[in-house]
Each structure stands twice: as structure tokens, then as C-alpha cells.
From TrEMBL:
Pfam families: Transketolase_N
Coiled-coil regions, chain positions: none
InterPro entries for this protein: THDP-binding, Transketolase_N
Parts of the chain that traverse the membrane: none
Protein known as: Transketolase
A GO molecular-function descriptor: magnesium ion binding
SUPFAM superfamilies hit by this protein: Thiamin diphosphate-binding fold (THDP-binding)
Amino acid sequence: MTITADDHRTHGYTDLPRLMSLMSGDEKHGPAATSTLDVLWVLYDRVLRVTPERTQDPGRDRFLLSKGHGPMAYYAVLAAKGFLPVDWLPGFGGYDSPLGHHPDRLLVPGAEIGSGSLGHGLPIGAGTALGLRAQGLTDPAVWVLIGDAELDEGSNHEAIAFAGPAGLDRLHTVVVDNSSASHARPGGIAARFEAAGWSAATVDGRDHTALYEAFTAPHPGRPHVVVARVEPKNA
């Protein structure tokens, strides 16, 4: 495929709708993608210490997209930040495209895990944070983005219950709450994490300033969760 000069320049937040519009198809999971757009942008633009040149650096921050069944926003942000060529986006979901309906860490530059099956990302994140600690790498942060519906999965609750008492303070979770969980109690997400010893904040998932402040809030000795509320999925 042809890669143009535009494919390698950085893009801003206002470019994201155009980048997302380049991807089409029956399996694009539009609501799942758009619900994560602002969280992803603030993380990659202002928080994560990782660049296209540092994807193999042991000291990099790790971002794990557990909500991998709607990766359009993720691909758009990675393209905007130069991790992958913009020219790849129109092929999204195609037979010969590296950009599948679920991200593949072997094909997508910058992707840390293959994801899409609900309930895997947070346990992997807890294990990653524990492994980094065991190696003496105490500086890299681990970030996991999950959806509120993923809290229907017991594997996530096991990870929540482990990470708090283990004091995994380099582990951060963002829960994008679009009211799609089957068994959740309204307003109860942050309380569930706090009961297990996590630091927690709940903010407007479209407010970039509020997201940044919540992402960077100090939480010594404890893992940290940010619940990012967005419009309901079926609204």
C-alpha cells in the first residue's frame, strides 16, 4: 500500500473524526469506539510515556486496551500519534489489513496485548505491574482501559481484589462507563474498587481537563482507577 507524507505527521484532537471516518464496515462497533475516544486522546497526548520510537523500551509506560472489541478510536489515536500510518485506516477489518476488528499485538505497532474477549485486560495488567516490580522496574506505569460491562466478568474482580492488597501502585485502570453492564449498580463502580483498597475518581469522560487531573492524581501505595462516565450506549 502507498504511504504518503501526511501519514507520518502528527495530528491533533480535531483530526480524529476524519481519521475515524476512514474506517468502515459492518463490524466496527461504533458506540464502543466513540465512548473511548476522549480517554484515549488524553492518555496518549498528555499522560503516557511512550512514543513510536519507544515501543520496545523497558522503561516505557504500558497501555493495555482491554475494551478491544471497538478499536476504531484506538487505531485513530495511534495513527494521529505516528505509531501507524494513516494509510492503513481505510483497510480496517480487511483480509490483508493489520488492523483487525480486535487489535493484534503482533500486527499493530504500539499494541501491548491482543484483546477483545471481555475480562482479560485487567488481570494481564495486574500481572504486568507485578512483573515489572519483580524486575526492579518501578518507574513504568501500567494503564488498562476497560468497559463497564467487563465488570460482569469475574476475572476482573479477582484482579481488583488482588491488586489493592498487593499495593500495585503503578497499576492504573480507566473504566469507560456507558451504562452497558448487565449487573452493575448505578454509581457503584468506584466503590467496588475502593472496597479493595484502590484509589478512585469518577469524572466526565468527555472533559479533558477533568480526565487529566484524575489520571495524574497522586495515589501512593495504592492502584488507581478512574471511572469515565459517557453518554449511555443505547441513548
